[in-house]
Design a protein that fits this description.
heterodimer, A: about 80 residues, alpha+beta, 2 helices, B: about 240 residues, alpha/beta, nine-stranded mixed β-sheet, two-stranded antiparallel sheet, about 20% helix, globular
């Protein structure tokens, strides 16, 4: 069993109104050093795969097809093997 | 004339579209998202709502409904398909129209009557036969993610190809920043595919299709497609 840890974020070129709202909130709380806030999603997928390569391929496919919209989002992920219980 | 309304779990404007179609004098039936055929319909509508609860992303999961393959085949034949609000988002996700929707720049769900300007000649789409370029109509909007985005290259293609069908405007038809309710590029409220048979729009024509609803501008779209179908799928005047 593998665990994929996936992060989906808006592309850098795209404004993130939610992130902007949080940035101004942090600023108004006195965190003057905050320059930018970007909000994304973290998705954890547990899946079966025969090997690490296959797992990478499957997760990449899932990200491209469903988990992100590549018109406006970028994704990144790491995988690890889960030790048997 | 028979309209097919695709119903996803979470669609909530399906009945409104049916009522508007009936008010315009034609038949309208529902197509469940698990159906694999859309045979027998002269036009398809993807209604507004929150398909699959908008989980993950608006329209992300609806895109993979069994019915969507049939919708794509139907669209490829040049037959009329309209996606309204969440239905527009589905058309974007499935790639029948280019671009994506981002959260409104205000971060707020906007729900109000909105003026939109018609940007195309009547014959550009089956849904605009009874509209004229520059005409300002009022249609309700209700969305949290209607901030249309597309890369600059595709935007230019849309503009040059006459694929921008509606833009948000003020009462005099001017495209001011203040008249754009969600931050959409170029005040875009609706676009069509190159062929013109697939239209996606955020405003709700079905919510303004009878005077009792406070306005009947939306009825013009329903009457347009009926006229298009009656003309045998050609432009008739």
């Amino acid at each position: 069993m593998y665990v994929a840890d996936i992060v989906v974020k808006l592309k850098k070129s795209i404004l993130d109104p939610q992130g902007d709202a949080v940035r101004s909130a942090l600023k108004s709380m006195g965190y003057d050093g905050v320059h930018d806030v970007r909000i994304g999603k973290r998705i954890e997928v547990r899946l079966e795969a025969t090997c690490e390569d296959e797992c990478m391929r499957l997760v990449d496919e899932m990200c491209a097809k469903l988990l992100s919209n590549t018109v406006v989002e970028d994704y990144d992920f790491s995988i690890r093997e889960e030790s048997g219980e | 004339m028979k309209l097919g309304i695709v119903v996803f779990p979470g669609s909530n404007c399906d009945r409104d579209v049916q009522t508007a179609a009936r008010a315009a004098g034609y038949d309208a039936d529902f197509i469940w998202h698990t159906d694999t055929s859309v045979d027998g319909f002269d036009c398809l509508a993807l209604p507004g709502g929150f398909s699959y609860g908008d989980y993950l992303r608006t329209a992300a999961i609806a895109r993979f409904s069994p019915v969507m393959e049939a919708v794509a085949r139907y669209a490829a034949l040049g037959r009329p398909v309209i996606g309204i609000c969440n239905g527009f988002q589905v058309l974007l996700e499935v790639g029948l129209l280019p671009g994506a929707m981002l959260r409104n720049t205000s971060c707020k769900f906007v729900c109000k009557p909105q003026r939109v300007r018609v940007e195309v000649a009547p014959a550009r789409t089956p849904f605009t036969l009874k509209l004229r370029p520059g005409q300002v109509i009022t249609l309700p909007i209700a969305h949290g993610e209607g901030n249309y985005y597309v890369d600059s290259e595709t935007l230019e293609e849309l503009e040059l190809g006459g694929q921008v069908v509606f833009r948000y405007c003020d009462e005099s038809g001017e495209l001011t920043a203040g008249s754009c309710p969600n931050g959409s590029l170029g005040n875009i409220a609706g676009i069509c595919n190159k062929a013109g048979n697939v239209l996606g729009m955020m405003p709700h024509p079905e919510r303004a299709a009878e005077d009792i609803l406070g306005g009947a501008d939306g009825r013009l779209l329903f009457d347009s497609v009926a006229q298009w179908v009656q003309g045998g799928g050609r432009i008739v005047r």
